[in-house]
Amino acid sequence: MTTLKYIRPLFRFLNCSSTLTSQRFIHIERRKDHVRLIDKHDTMDFHYIWLRHNCPAIGKSIHPKTGERVVDCAEIPSNIEPEQVEFVDSEKKLKITWSKDHTSSFDLSYLLANAYGKNRIEAKKPQGKVDDIEIVYNKDQYDAYIRSCSERLKKFGLVIVRKRSLDTEEIIKDFLPCGASVVETHFGRIEDLRTDNTTNEHTDQLGYTDAAINLHTDQPFIADPPGMQLLQCIRRADTGGANTLVNAAHAAVYLREIDPNAYYLLTTVPIHFHRKQKQFTSLHVGPIIQTEGDEIKQIRHSYFTLAPFNFPFWLTTAYYDAYRKYASILYDPQCQYRVTLNSGDFVMYDNFKMLHARDSFTGPRHLRGIYFRQTDVWKKLAKFDKEK
Ligand SMILES: [Fe+2]
C-alpha cells in the first residue's frame, strides 16, 4: 500500500501532459552523497554510487551484446559525485553527467520502480529545550493541564509540571483510568527516593544514595518494564540533584542516519541486563535498541546493571565503539533536558524512549517514583482530547 501511495502521484505526473510541461512540480536537489527528486507530493532520494552502479549506458556500464553489467560496484569510488544532474526529454528522463565522456540516462519509470529512498525523513539530532516540555499547574484549568501533559508526552516523550501538589495520590489520579493501578515493583508501589529510606528492604542501589546516577532507563532487567515513570519532588536537595533527560529513541534514529553499522549492532546484539541485589535478582537478555521494522519500540539502557559483555572476540571492540557512538549523542548537552525540580513539581516520561539521570547532591533530598503502564496513561489522557 505504501508503495502504491507513493508511486501514484508521480505516475500522475508522468501521465499528465500539463504537469509534464511544467517544472514547477518537480525539481532536483543536490546533496552531499545523494540527489533528491521532488514533485508536488513526493520525494525520491538516490545515492550517487547507486546511480553509477545502475548506470544503463551501453559500453560504459552495460555490455552491448549481452546486456549484462560490466562494472563491479567495488570499482566505483565511494565518494563519486556527478558533474551535473538534470531532467531531459520533457522531464521523462534523468540525465547524469559523470565526466566529459560518460553520462547516464535514467527513465523516470525505472527510478520510480526502484525508489529505495522514497519520502525519506532526514533524522536530526534531538534538541533538549526545556521550554517545550515545561508547564505550570493551574487548578482552574484542569482539563487544559491534562491536555498539555498529553501533548508533550506524545511529541517529546516527557513533561515537567511545576507547582502541582505534594499529594502523591492526587497526582496519580491524573494519569490512571478508573479501575487501573500503578505498576508495583520490588521497590514498592510508591518508591521513596531518599538516603534515609527505612521502608524499603532493597535500598542497596544507587537511587538511595546521594551519588550521581548517569543516563539509564528503569527496570531494563525485567521482561516487561513499566512504560511510564513519574518523579515527584517532595524536597529538593540543598545543593545539586538536578535531573537530566534525553530522548534516546530520537537519538537512535539519528544514530542510524550517521552510523548505520553502530545502529545495527545495538539493535541486534543481545546483552545481559542483570540486577543483582542482596534480596533481589533479575536478568533480561536483549539488545539496547529494540525495533520492529524501521520503528524504535523500546530502549533498554543501564550501565549499572549490565553483566560483563560476553561476545565473540572479534565483535567486542566493535560493540564498545557502537555503544560509545550512541553515547556521544545521548551525552551531548544540546540533546539533553536539564531540570531542577522544586517541592511540588514532577517530571513524567516515557520509560521506553527517555533516559534519565541525576546529579550528586547534598541535603535531605526526597523524590517519589511511581510507575505506570502506557496503555493506562494513554487511555486516561484520551478522555481529555479536544474533540471529545
Ligand atoms: Fe532511574
Automatic annotation (TrEMBL):
<keyword id="KW-0560">Oxidoreductase</keyword>
<comment type="similarity">
    <text>Belongs to the gamma-BBH/TMLD family.</text>
</comment>
<dbReference type="InterPro" id="IPR010376">
    <property type="entry name" value="GBBH-like_N"/>
</dbReference>
<dbReference type="InterPro" id="IPR050411">
    <property type="entry name" value="AlphaKG_dependent_hydroxylases"/>
</dbReference>
<dbReference type="GO" id="GO:0046872">
    <property type="term" value="F:metal ion binding"/>
</dbReference>
<keyword id="KW-0479">Metal-binding</keyword>
<keyword id="KW-0408">Iron</keyword>
<dbReference type="Pfam" id="PF02668">
    <property type="entry name" value="TauD"/>
</dbReference>
<dbReference type="InterPro" id="IPR042098">
    <property type="entry name" value="TauD-like_sf"/>
</dbReference>
<keyword id="KW-0124">Carnitine biosynthesis</keyword>
<protein>
    <recommendedName>
        <fullName>trimethyllysine dioxygenase</fullName>
        <ecNumber>1.14.11.8</ecNumber>
    </recommendedName>
</protein>
<feature type="domain" description="Gamma-butyrobetaine hydroxylase-like N-terminal">
    <location>
        <begin position="40"/>
        <end position="111"/>
    </location>
</feature>
<dbReference type="GO" id="GO:0050353">
    <property type="term" value="F:trimethyllysine dioxygenase activity"/>
</dbReference>
<dbReference type="Pfam" id="PF06155">
    <property type="entry name" value="GBBH-like_N"/>
</dbReference>
<comment type="function">
    <text>Converts trimethyllysine (TML) into hydroxytrimethyllysine (HTML).</text>
</comment>
<dbReference type="InterPro" id="IPR038492">
    <property type="entry name" value="GBBH-like_N_sf"/>
</dbReference>
<dbReference type="GO" id="GO:0005739">
    <property type="term" value="C:mitochondrion"/>
</dbReference>
<comment type="pathway">
    <text>Amine and polyamine biosynthesis; carnitine biosynthesis.</text>
</comment>
<dbReference type="InterPro" id="IPR003819">
    <property type="entry name" value="TauD/TfdA-like"/>
</dbReference>
<dbReference type="GO" id="GO:0045329">
    <property type="term" value="P:carnitine biosynthetic process"/>
</dbReference>
<keyword id="KW-0223">Dioxygenase</keyword>
<feature type="domain" description="TauD/TfdA-like">
    <location>
        <begin position="151"/>
        <end position="371"/>
    </location>
</feature>
